[in-house]
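User: What would this chain look like folded?
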Amino acid sequence: MRIAIAQINPTVGDLSGNARKITEHLQKAKAVKADLVIFPELAVCGYPPEDLLYKEHFVRDNLTALNDLRPKTKDLTAIIGFVDKGKKGELYNSAAVLNNGKLAAVCHKEQLPNYGVFDEKRYFVPGRNELIFRLGAAVFGVNICEDIWVNDGGVYLRQARGGARLLVNISASPFYAGKLEARKKLLRQRALETRSFICYVNIVGGQDELVFDGASLIYNPKGELLAEGKEFAEDFLVADLGVAAAPKKSAKIVTLSAPKNGSTKPKIRTELLAPVSRIESIYKALVLGTRDYVRKNGFQKVLIGLSGGIDSSLVAVIAADAIGRENVVGVSMPSRFTSSGTRSDGKALAENLKIKFYEIPIEGIMEGYLGALKEAFVGQPRNVAEENLQARIRGNILMALSNKFGWMVLTTGNKSEIAVGYCTLYGDMSGGFAVIKDVPKIKVYELAKFRNAEEGRDLIPRSVFTRAPTAELRANQTDQDTLPPYDTLDAILKGYVEEHRSFDKLTKLFTDKALVAKVIRMVDLSEYKRRQAAPGVKITPRAFGKDWRLPITNKYKEF
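Assistant: Here's the prediction, encoded as structure tokens.
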């Protein structure tokens, strides 16, 4: 059997655009004389469609789009993810098996994930997938994403016991660092467990805060990896599999008509890809997530406040890699507290990237604010209000440029800062997309060093790495005036945010109980800020956003 894997980047809701993309890959499959071509989970409508599924017309149009694809599968068998509707109006996450221009069968997803970023039980009902298929001599089963993860004697085992020697899994599995290794381990186990070929297709692309990394996989019954798709890019894999025949008589087997594509097929070459480091995978995820969020939402250019610090420097580099340096604008907004070092580093970065650069001082604007507030502030000492005014002035300048020219503002706050509220609402949090929102501060430095090494020069100036992090909102300020050292802070946050550890468990790892309590308190009190923050790329197992749903009004305290 010659199988093709169409690892595509659909857009949620773009039914016509997704159908065109599917059609293009159907033609590719015919050109290489594939017997079977498989597309990702919900390829017709994009994943996740969320509350679009409550719109009856959306579901209807998705069904129409699938029906329009049917005649394009003449002399081919295709498996395409879509939303199916039952007789009583119930919805199923489904795979259509299109064979020689006809809808041969529909397979419904059984295991509906309802954890982390998934809430499929909100929309779908579980199906019962009993079908297996014969195409020529080969017998295969079709299951959907979570169906192959859950080992409870479910669908993939029933298919194997029914005679399937090829298990096709269509998926929409979002990225986080380490996820691919987990997938590879699982699929290898499934191949050995069922003594079957495993063909796994994953969606690729950015969708709001989620990034799907592709990296589709084919394993043989010995658990050996035969082929793999690129990470963070569309790909088209073709492989010839010697799938063993199954018993000819079985009530559950649906016989499909074999394609009339001749016995002579063009030669193909299948090679395994060179391994990619984890830091490179994270960087690629940030680039893809940024590119797709900007482009799929109709923006051409982005705008970044360049402070001369490591966070804004990394965001600018990612943006240039994502949408091209000609589409990135940097703005320096110095005040009396801005050092000559940070001011020059912001400009140097812009010159290194060859991006458009503005310098707009805020000192005069700040004096205007203080003059207007003089009577209201009389008798009050200078405090965080004056600091945040500077951040909000900068936010206003960026949003003014955004409104004037239609550029999207990219915010530059990292996960460490957002976790503890070391950021200003309507100031440095202003913008449409938070590129490094899920990247801890220490990881920001690692990514910046990786990108400089990849470039072979100091794209980000070396002094940016050696200077103590500072918001520069008052004289001689550093982040560590308010926060613990970032290596300590990030370790505590990993335990509390990503691993759900309690205060008692954390204090067994960190002896300074007062510090642990302080960090937890800062995280809890900052929920109202995070709820108003822009979405950003998820790269950890638990990101602020869909993964993190704590109530803002919340009196529960551990200590």
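The radius of gyration is 26 Å. If you want, I can go into more detail on any region.
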